[in-house]
Amino acid sequence: MSQIRKDVFTGRWVIMAETTTVQLSDFHFKRFIRDPTFCPFCENNEASTPPEVFAIRNPGSSPNRPGWSVRVVPNSDPRLRIEGKLGQRADGFHDLMNGVGAHEIIAETPRHGCSVHELEIHEISAVIRAYIARMVDLEGDKRIRYVLIFKNHGEEAGAHTISHSISHLMALPVTPRAVKTKLITARDYFALKERCIYCDVLQQEQKERKRLIAENEDFVAFAPFASRFPFEMAVFPKSHNSSFSRISSGQVDGLSRILRGILRKLDHTLGPPYNLSLQDRPFLRPRTGYWNTIEDDFHWHLEILPQIARITGFEWASGFFYNPVPPEIAAGCLSAVADD
Ligand SMILES: [Zn+2]
Ligand SMILES: [Zn+2]
Question: Is the Cα torsion angle 114, 23, 160, 130 positive or negative in sign?
């Protein structure tokens, strides 16, 4: 019989198929093919993007010239703009504000032909350091409450116009609902038990090991109990930390290693399009009595969602998900891929 599983972090329900094996050939999706035409994110094409806001550069190189390993630029077609006031106001029953924020593109490598799992560890570490530098900078802008960093890998994951390996950064004047649901659940659990819900779940996953995909000294990756998508993965720091930007330089390398490892496993198993996102806490703007325990109750993490199952009327209408591959099966397939 299938199971209806509850995601303890969000309260979301997932119908998990009853299956003990998985046929990888049953999944149909377009493999990621890199468009070889002109690309503004390749080295030597720096003049084709807006001026960079941050870069990790070789000594002696100049801004907006070649000689970088990671380069951050404003999106030339931004969804939100950094200029102007928020202008929060009402329209009868409705609330609205101006589209103020930031939308930046992080070019993860100067080379067109590489995905994250094909980069060197020190190159991935440079990408993570760029994420941290941008977050720390944007925290100084009092209009911004939340920075969302995400990746769309492959056309079916939303990367239809850009095939260079990039991440998106969106600085938002509000905390996204999906994150807020997690924050409220974590806060309520802490109020009851005085423990972090994520630390408690990590302890169980590390003990049981049936959904574990990879681990190193500082990080653990597993297939979440109520995974929404086949081969969904989550990465957590082992020691409690509410804020991604506070990780140590040693942890940056640990994160690079586990991330490259699990993305290689995913590529070698199935090679699907996927979305990756950083689930971090919001900036701690004064809001009396609201996020008092957030540093103790929330635990930042990464989510990797392969896009191989269509979202249908059922998911849109109910908020339920249907997952044909139980996470225990997915973790078995992924952890069987040899590390290299
Ligand atoms: Zn390129
Ligand atoms: Zn924790």
Answer: negative
